[in-house]
What we know:
By secondary structure, the protein is α+β, with helices and mostly antiparallel strands. The chain has three helices and two strands, in the order ββααα.
Amino acid sequence: MPFVRKIVNSNVLAGIIDIPEALQNKRVEVIIFSLDDNSTTVSQIGKTKKAKGFLDKYKNTALIEKESAAWAEAATGKHEHR
Length: 82
């Protein structure tokens, strides 16, 4: 059975699943594999949370305006003497 295994900081998962206090701010292992039991429903698994937009509270709108030119400025500064 194919699966995905990844080690991440538990803070990344905080908006997606409930992280027990003992695991907060720690590296955790995430394992994803398919569920073979077709009778299990979403209500049995629990409320599914979406990852989309969960970092929205950390955005800095002042920096977003600068993003479109950031790469060009960095490349020019690095390679202007060549």
